Amino acid sequence: MRLGVLVLPEFRWSEARSLWGRVEELGFDHAWTYDHLAWRSLADSDWFGAVPVLAAAAVATSRIRLGTLVASPNFRHPVPFARELITLDDLSGGRFTLGFGAGGTGWDATVLGHDPWSPAERTARFAEFVDLLDLLLRQAVTTHRGRYYRAVEAHSVPGCVQRPRIPFAVAATGARGMALAVAHGQAWVTTGPAAPEGGLLGAEAGARVVGGQVRRLEEACAAAGRDPATLDRIVLTGPVLDGGLSSVDAFDDVVGRYAEAGVTDLVVHWPRPTEPYAGDRGVFEAVFSDIDARRGGR
Questions:
Q1: Element (H, E) at 98
Q2: Residue 202, φ and ψ in degrees, nearest 5
Q3: What's the CATH code, domain 2-296?
């Protein structure tokens, strides 16, 4: 089990530099940030752009993988975004992963002045977004005339450090999204089910839900003729699933249960002093002080 941490892009770099360095020192396998223009209850709070934050983190670290969890088409066009992704891959020396999904109906969906897209349109846009990004990151020059996006002789030189392109981690729970993950992804991402009544889902219930999603993902792999072992399975705890950060024993239980469900990577949130994702920094550091043991969920 690989372990990752998500750091909200809310810190001025004078503070964030040491924080990203500490994440690497603790031994996490990967670190992520949200890609939103503003986010939920923190819309009026400090918030920085994901791409420049990750660019700074890339040059402040040397080993850990970095990525978005997740980006979406809500306010991005594949052509300029591809340029930024190629730059992030270069700055990180080939340590960047693009986590992205179809997006939702929050702030990002309306801030540019259009009405929120229907679920069907979001799904269709995401499918075209993924297809076009895949071409832009693989090819030196791309022309594309689709239903939602166009590219006219879009140049992508020098291309990605990682070949044939940066890895895609596709967030999906529906059939069409899972098919995209199988077709284009090096990883699949889930946050579990829709938000439950009465708080976060505990380890047993959460792993049961995610296990069912993993089985559907494996069925999608079989239908496409892909070996499911070639697709990593990332679970982001926090929004819906309890990450078990109250104690070492609780976290070990979480890791063990999700490993049994077929998960390869588990991501927790860096603790904040207040909600959302409130936590005790001392307990968090105690949980991850022996990260090799945590990976095994002993």
A1: strand 96-100
A2: -70, 175
A3: 3.20.20.30
- Residue 242 carries which side chain, given as an amino acid letter? D
**CB contact set of 23 (below 8 Å; sequence gap of 6+):** 5, 7, 31, 61, 64, 270
What gap in Å lies between CA 51 and CA 84, rounded to an integer?
A: 7
3-state helix, strand and coil shares in percent for the chain, rounded to the nearest 5: 45, 20, 40
Kind of pairing between the strands at 141-145 and 96-100:
unpaired
Cα separation, 91 vs 94, whole angstroms: 8
Contact 295, 254 (CB under 8 A): no
Q: Report pLDDT digits (tens) over 98-150.
A: 999 999 888 899 999 988 899 999 999 999 999 999 999 999 999 999 999 99
Q: Where are the beta strands (DSSP E) in 132-231?
A: 141-145, 150-155, 168-171, 187-190
The CA distance from 15 to 21, in Å, is 10
Instruction: Indicate the SS3 state at residue 68.
Output: strand
Q: Residue 297: helix, strand or coil by DSSP? A: coil
pTM of the entire predicted model: 0.96
pLDDT (tens digit per residue) in 54-77: 999 999 999 999 999 999 999 999
Helix 78-91 × helix 119-138 angle, to 10°: 50
Q: Tell me: cis bond preceding 170? Omega within 30 of 0 counts.
A: no
Judging by DSSP bridges, how do beta strands 141-145 and 150-155 pair with one another? antiparallel
| CA distance linking residue 295 with residue 141, whole number of Å | 42
pLDDT at residue 297, as a whole number: 61
Annotated domain spans of the chain: 2-296
Q: Work out whether strand 265-269 and strand 2-6 pair parallel, antiparallel, or are unpaired.
A: parallel
In the block, tokens 């996006």 appear at 149
Q: Are 101 and 126 a contacting pair, CB within 8 Å?
A: yes
